[in-house]
Specification:
It contains two helices and 17 strands. β1 and β2 form a beta hairpin. The strands form two sheets. Strands 3, 4, 6, 7, 9, 10, 12, 15, 16 and 17 form a ten-stranded mixed β-sheet that branches. 38% of the residues are buried. It is 11% helix and 45% strand. It has one domain. α1 runs antiparallel to α2. By secondary structure, it is mainly beta. One of its GO terms (molecular function) is nickel cation binding. This is Urease accessory protein UreD. Keywords: Chaperone, Cytoplasm, Nickel insertion. UreD, UreF and UreG form a complex that acts as a GTP-hydrolysis-dependent molecular chaperone, activating the urease apoprotein by helping to assemble the nickel containing metallocenter of UreC. The UreE protein probably delivers the nickel. It is found in: Cytoplasm.
Length: 296
Amino acid sequence: MCSFPTLRREFTTRGELRLRVGVEAGRSTPRSQFHRGALSTMRPLYLEDSGQVTVFILNPGGGYVSGDVYDLSVEVEEGAELLLTTQSATKVYRTTGLPACQTMSVRVADRGVMEYLPDQLIVYRDGCYEQLGDFELSPTAHLLVGEVITPGWSPTSEPFEYEEIRLRSSVWVCDESGERRPLLVDFLRICPPESVTGIGVLEGHSHCGQLLIIDRRLDEAFMDEVLALAEKCPAEVGVTLTGAEFTCADGGPAPRCLVVRSLGRGTGEIDALHRAIANTARTRFFERPNINLRKY
């Protein structure tokens, strides 16, 4: 089984992406962009009239292997709006000794919007993968992050042939004294060699998803809308509305956090749920049309 060492000296940075989005002439636009190695982006797109910019991340390398590190850094300036996605699924192949790793550092300023809805994460036979997300938000920012995890094909046709997956997301907001305070720490670990199909783990399902929404305007009414969507979904879905009790730098309360966990038997049903929840948030908070990424 792969180990997850703290020191990264043995890892190799295969791809690096730096993106900063601001507002110019009434619409959001990349102000600076840098990419190196097996990461790049497509030309920025505007899929609607709201001024939100959509950016597709490209990985021409085809997939992640042992010891690879992919570093992403995103900054959304005051009032800017970014929809970030991937051109295709993230594929993790066989790893030996060291996992593949992706780190993502995101900063969202006042009234900024960051929606991150990548295609599914597929981990193949004997693969280990670690994903670390660090999100620092203004109290008036809006963050939505989704992930769908899919087991990859194996020559024996047996499911769950990968070794281990670890996903960790930390969300931070500055309090009234300017100190960086944790708002949410979310950790997901799936380890098939320890058995994942039984009671209390995947409960016989093959796919899982998680969706985080951070916004000060989240309330019980919005949660009821999400619960109604969850009831229509064929997947098993759990929804939690939570948060931290402290005063932010602007004198207002800390943003609230909506966490959606789902277990299903296919990528499509979980992805459809995530899109439906994202569209509900877009309608309620921004009066914006539904997401239509038109990839296929």
